Amino acid sequence: MAKKKLRVGIIGCGGIANACHLNNWKELEGEGRVELIGVCDIVKERAEQAMAKFGARKMYLDYHKMLGDDQYDVIDVCTQNRVHCPAAVAALKAGANVLVEKPMAMNARECEAMIAAAKSARRTLMVAQHMRFEAYSEKLKAVVESGELGRIYTANARCLRRRGIPGWGKFHIRKESLGGPLIDIGVHVMDLCVWLMGCPKPIAASGKVYRMFGDRPDLCNAAWGKGYPDKEFDVEDYAVGLVRFEKGITMVVEVSWAANIPAETECVSLLGDKGGITTHPPGVYGYEHNALTSRKFDWLPAQEGHRMEIRHFTECLEKNLPVRVQPAESLRIQKIIDAIYESSARNREIAIK
Known about the structure:
The protein is α/β, with parallel strands linked by helices. It contains eleven helices and 15 strands. It has a nine-stranded mixed sheet. Strands 3-2-1-4-5-6 form a six-stranded parallel sheet, with helices on both faces.
């Protein structure tokens, strides 16, 4: 008896869907594991282009109409941040399992609504945190789980662009995306960092966000596009935070879309009492025989995180397995983000419940 193909629909056919999602669903369709049924976007031309390029059966401008027309096994939400929650909840209520792009939603309250909808519908919900699926991440996770680092007590999550304000979409508009680099790229490195640490529970955060020059029309923005006019750009271009977890563990976060630094920097690092790790470059550091040591990976599998996350999600549905990125873990990351924004506004540490 032939295995049932998963019926897939995409909500949002813009940048991330085109670059990292639709092609990977098409690959799985070629393997006979899924059927790409419907694509949806509020911009008609984008929906039409996605249907033509990737061979979807139907296109829609309204996801409610899309969900009402067909029964889907999977809905992949690739919209602007503000639509993540309503689209995911609607899809879950319609009986679909949901993969949703990062960040999970605009705030913790919306994340909780998504988790409740998944539980009520008895469907799977996962946030597309692709960094967990990169080869270096998986190898470093194995190092941590081996106990080689000993007691992990602090970590650093950093993603700094010299000039990298998104020159497309609505990332720079607060009502559409909540914030700037903290929620856009900070969510990636924070999720990876906390996952590598073993997902400790956050208890408080403090931080500060800055909009220093990202809204200046004369800003040199290199390959990412032009700066935005003052009236549109109302999010931060830099953020810094300190997060406290249970058992005395801490994490420092530093992110920017634009900063006067020598070059772009991305790295997650963990410190333990027996060893430490870094993600960029991937390495393990410690000591033995009264000497300091360092170890690198001479070879890592050629795997792309977005491709692997979609294949992982599909396999979990096919085999009824738990997903790697649990919704409760993504909720905790959103609570950290909320707390740093609130701390910046109120100028004090914010408790995380």
